[in-house]
Amino acid sequence: MLCIQGFLRARRPASSRRTGARARSRGACPACGCSPSPPGARSPSAPAGAREAGTWPRWLAATTPEATRSLGETVKNRSKKSSKKANNSSGTSSSSSKLPPVCYEIITLKTKKKKKMAADIFPRKKPANSSSTTVQQYHQQNLSNNNLIPAPNWQGLYPTIRERNAVMFNNDLMADVHFVVGPPGGTQRLPGHKYVLAVGSSVFHAMFYGELAEDKDEIRIPDVEPAAFLAMLKYIYCDEIDLAADTVLATLYAAKKYIVPHLARACVNFLETSLSAKNACVLLSQSCLFEEPDLTQRCWEVIDAQAELALKSEGFCDIDFQTLESILRRETLNAKEIVVFEAALNWAEVECQRQDLALSIENKRKVLGKALYLIRIPTMALDDFANGAAQSGVLTLNETNDIFLWYTAAKKPELQFVSKARKGLVPQRCHRFQSCAYRSNQWRYRGRCDSIQFAVDKRVFIAGFGLYGSSCGSAEYSAKIELKRQGVVLGQNLSKYFSDGSSNTFPVWFEYPVQIEPDTFYTASVILDGNELSYFGQEGMTEVQCGKVTVQFQCSSDSTNGTGVQGGQIPELIFYA
User: Fold this and answer.
1) End-to-end alpha-carbon separation of the chain, Å?
2) CATH number at residue 313
3) Alpha helices in 429-545 (DSSP H)
4) For residue 437, what are the β-bridge partners?
5) Which of 89-98, 142-151, 391-400 has the weakest average pLDDT?
6) For residue 556, what is the domain's CATH number?
7) Distance CA 452, CA 556 (A)
């Protein structure tokens, strides 16, 4: 039986080995001749308690031959280092400072042959892509079906708890609850893990671990769409937010129902960035339902500024009666009253279909109820009333006669309709020049383009441009105005305006206000056609503060008639904010 020191010496040349029958006879190490520790003795470097009478200490015993070789090599290396230090020392070593060699017995224990597992017989190749890519692949698979992990050691593929948790998303592996999500006829069965769900939602925590928790293996959720529920589960399991325009409202409902506030906030931000006149009325209705005041305010801003587009959108017919009343009451609605009237009739027609009523004039008036009197019919232009509202059939004969008298008679009758016109929105003007001038040879127009680029720090709605007029007396101009973003035309209009020969600016309007997002440059262009020379601006500013909105200007490559930041045409931007 060899000790560690003896094991190392046994590997030296034969001339340097210390062996003999005397050493073997007293049970000493056959390689170095050291004797075992006496009963109760302890090795100098052995820990307390590592004692065994008449034997070498077993606390360093190796369990396998491989461990023996490794341990011997380590001791050998340490021996070499210590011998080098001794040779390099300047002093002389005395015999009293030499310590006897310390030997520890190496005991090789017999172990059973290790059984090979299936993973050793059939090793799984590690994917070439990173673990994050693998997790994303699992996410894509789990969105459509329940995915079981075939690998016996799949946990080793993912370095973080987030990635390992993500593998469980929509996965039947270890699932202890299932959800049947969706209305009857459109349900989907989705697996879940109570611990993960409880960590992500206080509602799930109360459902599974609260005082009134029910031990059900299957839970039915008929009021949530499967796609929205999956989006919520993906956030809880994977910490990822995956929203789409067609499911974001349903996802917001699920996040509100199960109190997942960060996902709900992300849904609201998504809706705010995608807000437009086409969906503003629907989002207004939903924002009131979900009690999101910030989103409600943003919806009102869009509806006020782009009222006619919002009222003519398909989404307007999908709103509830309470939202309809709030829109019809709106004092700042920037729309003609005939447009409001026609939009209300369109909503009434769809509402009759929702209530399974025949499409008749009587039923339209019935579903409108008192909301009809919120339409300010007496404020319409007389032509709009005579050719529109008066012939719609919705008004009674007495109501029609009274409104006609309201237009023409000196003594006006009392009406149930609101007779005061809406205030609408007051447009703001951003003037970018500090002065204007005219010369005998400029500013001339021959079908060339005047253009400037601008950006704002808050969302606004460009209603039109202010343009200079003739410097040689009164004149008429034909103007084609255009607004583009990255080459895409957002709005344009062709109209005429008459100038009186002054240096004032004259407004030219788009058909509908154009929504402008912050921190993005847009191109404003105009092509004027007129025989007379006009005024032009000078001492232009690169940045203008207009109320709470900051506007920045820069030159445009589309300008071919000389307009730039320092001078030229398009002195004003007219907008709602």
Assistant:
1) 94
2) 1.25.40
3) none
4) 536
5) 89-98
6) 2.60.120.820
7) 5
Are the CB atoms for 258 and 201 separated by under 8 Å? yes
Handedness of CA 137, 142, 146, 149 (dihedral sign): positive
Q: Is 79 exposed, middle or buried (0-12, 13-18, 19+ CB in 10 A)?
A: middle
Range of the domain at 215: 134-274
Q: pLDDT class for 111, splitting at 50, 70, 90? A: very low
The structural domain count of the chain equals 3
**Least confidently predicted of 25-29, 117-121, 458-462, 483-487:** 117-121
- What tokens appear for 200 in the block? 């992500």
Q: Are strands 177-181 and 218-221 parallel, antiparallel or unpaired?
A: parallel
**205 vs 208: CA distance, rounded Å:** 5
* pTM given for the model: 0.69
Write the DSSP symbol of residue 407: H
Same domain, 303 and 259: no
Same domain, 323 and 364: yes
**Rounded alpha-carbon distances, angstroms, from residue 432 to 113, 202, 509, 571:** 88, 54, 18, 6
Q: For position 50, what pLDDT does the model report?
A: 41
Task: Give SS3 for 257.
Answer: helix
The answer on 304 and 173 residing in a single domain is no
